[in-house]
Design a protein that fits this description.
Layout (H helix, E strand, L loop, with lengths): L2 H26 L6 H30 L11 H5 L4
């Protein structure tokens, strides 16, 4: 497996783990989440956004080659600001 495929597989693995954690927290929501659990839900959502953003960057790099910037994990403020 080449490095690009391995990196993408790692990102998808991270996404899968975060989605599982998010589901587990949401299942608890009927029992009221603690302040810490609510904070973790926000962190998970941000981390998921960062992972998806990184995948989009990687795919743009594959499609456009050197014309696309080098993929990097962007800050939470940058990723979360896309929808503002």
């Amino acid at each position: 497996m080449n490095d690009d495929r391995r990196a993408e597989k790692d990102i998808f693995g991270r996404i899968s783990r975060l989605v599982q954690e998010e589901r587990a927290l949401r299942e608890q929501s009927e029992h009221r989440l603690t302040a810490g659990e609510r904070a973790r839900m926000r962190e998970v959502a941000t981390e998921l956004d960062q992972c998806w953003d990184l995948l989009r960057q990687r795919r743009a790099r594959e499609e456009y080659g050197e014309a696309a910037p080098e993929p990097r994990v962007r800050s939470a403020q940058e990723v979360e600001g896309y929808w503002s």
